[in-house]
Amino acid sequence: MGIFKRLRDLTVASVNDVIDSMEDPVVMLNQYMRDMEVEIGQVEVSVARQVALEKKFRQQWEEAVTLAEKRDRQVKLALAEGEDFLARRALADKKQYEQRAQEYEALYLTASEAAQQMREKLTELKEEFYKMRAKRFTLMARAQVAKTQKQVNQAIVGIGNQSAGKGFHRMEEKVLRMEAEANLSGQWRQTQAGLEQSLESLENKDLDEELAQIKASLQAKKDERPAKKDEQPTKVQE
């Protein structure tokens, strides 16, 4: 029995948790107001029926009292006329009406008391309804603010956890890698350009040196030519 009781308690607790999580304060407040309106309507119908019953018993009581008084007059009139038989019958009817009047009076008083209690209950219900209706708007506004604030907080906390936030950070890292690769590529190009310039400078230097050597060689040959002319023998005159 202990195991089954624990299982039942666990099931009931789980169901209650699920129900609590599904309850929307705004929806439930509106539902409670509708339930109270239905309850007030039912009480109003019951009060109306009780008031009608109260009026009916009062009317029957008053009619019985009126008939008892009428028979009392008839008894006196019959005795005055010497009609003892009629007086006896009128007296018997009078006693029956008086008994009925007592019964209807008791029923009327009971019905009247019940109707008064029901009126008071109806008044209390209406007052409570008006209070709840006035408070409902405040509670609904507070619930809406709390709901919105919760959504904002969850959105802020979930930026780093949800796929959109992770994707955003991943793209940010990719952009940083692209920028780093672009910087490295620019530095390599600058290095290559510097190497090319250095090699070109060396080639130009070699060309300049070679041109200088060729020019010097040509100049040397040019300087040697007049000396060779002077060395030529002069022709003998005949």
Automatic annotation (TrEMBL):
Residues 87-135 form a coiled coil. InterPro entries: PspA_VIPP1. It comes from the Bacteria. Residues 220-238 have a biased composition (Basic and acidic residues). Residues 215-238 are annotated as: Disordered. The keyword Coiled coil applies. Belongs to the PspA/Vipp/IM30 family. This is PspA/IM30 family protein. It comes from Brevibacillus ruminantium.
